[in-house]
Amino acid sequence: MAIFAIGDLHLSLGTTKPMDIFRGWENYVERLRENWLAAVSPQDTVVLAGDTSWAMKLEDCAADFAFLHSLPGKKLLLKGNHDYWWTTMARMNAYLSECGFTDLSFLHNNCVFAQGVALCGTRGWLFDAGEAHDEKVMLRECGRLRASLCAAKDAEKIVFLHYPPVSTQANAAEIIAILHEFGVKRCFYGHLHGASIPRAVQGTADGVEYRLISADALRFFPYKI
Asked: For the whole model, what pTM was predicted?
């Protein structure tokens, strides 16, 4: 059994917003499927770090979720900034159950144990916006991250975020402080695409290893942790 991660799949099998109009995204769904099948087994766990589907409503996720369901492994979904279909946990869990997507679940105010470690995470937020609304959202995301890490208790913790907590110019100080408080050593994030990929902070900083896992950064190959 193994743990993999990949973010920003931007699936649009049930909508009309294809990503293959962008450079590097040509035939990305088939490439993702082939790479996934080559790497992931049914016993593995794959964390999807946000922006999974372009659907606007939960019921419009059916084709994208069915595609994920057809792939091996257990899938854990985080919320991204483009996951407009995201609603209450009760409604989303009911939807998965009704559709028979038994290998999909959500990482939200909780943690999931796999391979002896605790998989924790939340969406995160922009740390350089400076508006009052953004400050409130960041505080809420910090609370969700803290709840996820508390649920892990004494287990080794790996954190997954959608928004990057670090950059070459500024950092999300509130989130980084929580990572240090809970002794997190590995943090994976998505959101960055195209020209932003080479500028992403990757490697160890202040004792925490950061890794970008957006789909195009990984060339649509799930990253083995």
From this structure: 0.94
